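Methods, example record. To illustrate the input and output format used throughout this study, we show the complete record for SEC14 and spectrin domains 1. The sequence lines were provided to the predictor; the line carrying structure tokens was produced by it.
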Amino acid sequence: MEATVILPILKKKLAFLSGGKDRRSGLILTIPLSSDQTSLEELSTTLDYLLTEHCSFILTLPMLFQNVIPAEVSLVCVVKPDEFWDKKVTHFCFWKEKDRLGFEVILVSANKLTRYIEPCQLTDDFGGSLDYDHSDWLNKRLIFEKFTKESTSLLDELSVINESDKSTSTNKDKSADSVLLPSFDPETVLQTGHELLSELQQRRFNGSEGPAWCPMEEELLAQPQVIKLLDSLREQYTRYQELCRQRNKRTQLDEIHTKVMQVVTWLQGPGSELLKTQQEIGDSMRAAQALQQKHEEIESQHSEWFAVYVELNQQIATLLSIGEEEDVAELKALQQQLSDVCYRQATQLEGRQNVLQAAQGFHSTSQELSQQLDSLLGMLCADVAPADGASIQQNLKLLEEKLQSVEAGLASLRQKGTMVMELMCNQPSWPLEEAGSPAEEQQNNVQHIQAVMEEMQLRKQRCEDMVDVRRLKMLQMVQLFKCEEDSLQAVQWLGELLDALLKTHIRLGDDAQETRNMLDKHRKFVEVAQSTYDYGRQLLQATVVLCQSLRCTTRSSGDTLPRLNRVWKQFSVSSEERQQRLELALEFHTAAENVLQQECVDMESLDDLDSSGKTLLDRLTMPVIFPDGYVRILVQ
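The corresponding predicted structure is encoded as:
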């Protein structure tokens, strides 16, 4: 019978074993009876639970106890209060019933109870010094029975589990997950047992003052039982912990192996197929950007599996640091397989990313170069109508700059195209497959790059040829403008010479020598004007030739030549008149000097002097008539 079954009855304290003993070393069972409150049935149940050997009874009231006193009782002491002895005298012949009852019955007062039981074996209810707490006893009893029940059940379960582990280890096909879990928490049961044992042992050494306290018999008997159960439980629990550790280790290894194979299977399967189908580089910048976006999506999918790889690698590293020797080889093999596959896939991703970035650079440069060629071609196809030589020089400089930019762009395109092809060739090769394989796609990419570079080279060559023609045309136009400007300058210079001739060349000299010198200077002056006129004529002739070559009309072809001829004719007429007057003045000064040198002047010399003087005067008064009919009087 368990205490929990009759717990309400035990709490009523109908009977109790205080732990004391009579003079015959029998246990003392105290029954504080009350005729109107005590149930004989409950009392009988309590006694059946408490009594396991012969003991002495102490009853506080007389009653018909032969129906409730068990056969294990050897002596019954019926204790009556002192007031009972004062009220009436009773005669109980209990000794006559000894043979019938099977035990001796004594009727005593509380102060005479010590004749049969030592005071130290009596509780304070009977004037003794024995310490007894019924609630404490009941609580310990419940804990003891609970621990005994749980530990016994737990020992049976752990024994079954540990024995089943042996069969599991021999039968590898049987899953480790089939190991049963115990009904009770071993840690909790062990803690309960240790607390119970500590409480039982603590009462033995409780206090040093007063008489030595002797523990209850059941407490002394319970300690070895608790110790034995704790030892057995620790042994089985240690085996169970090792079993769980091995099971967890195997489970962890199986989980890691499963995850590793999941990562490897995806990377070698769907992941590789995604990369194999993405081998194009596009035919334009927009197509390359779309491919880059698709590649980023593929990278995002791979990053999830790479995150699993990092986590698995950390778990494997942790297990390797604390793992057992038989697990190291398996873990290292899994780690190596996982690392090889992940690194190979990461290399493929990085290579594809590098190719796409290089392809975007190639398409960007190709697009820019195409725009530059279009701009250059548009400039070459446009009609050239510069206003002056400076505009032509500026246009020519702009043309050269555009051509240099095209050359630099083409060089950059070749460099980037070569880099793309090298990156594609350096990528890890895929297994040869049928049409549409990565190798065939790479060959198509190489051909596309080469075709783009060849096309750009041809367009550049055509533009260079047109630039040469435009450069020659612009240089001719520069020469044309230069000839026109210089011819106008020649007209201006000739006009300035004419003005100088008409305004400053008016003296005829004071003597023959001075007139002779002035005549020489006049001839040289005429020679300068003649060379200026010839230079202007040559420039105008060159202008005509350049206009014919350029198929255009000169801006000054209509008036420069007539102006040049008109100024030259005016100069020719004026210089001829100047020369005639200087020659007549020289004859006059020569004749005058001859007359002055003669001591006796003859008439003939005087006539010559007079004739030359009149001729000079007539010449000076004669106006100059230009070819256009303009009349000018030269003042001397």
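Annotations derived from this record:
The chain is about 70% helix and 5% strand.
The longest strand covers residues 73-80.
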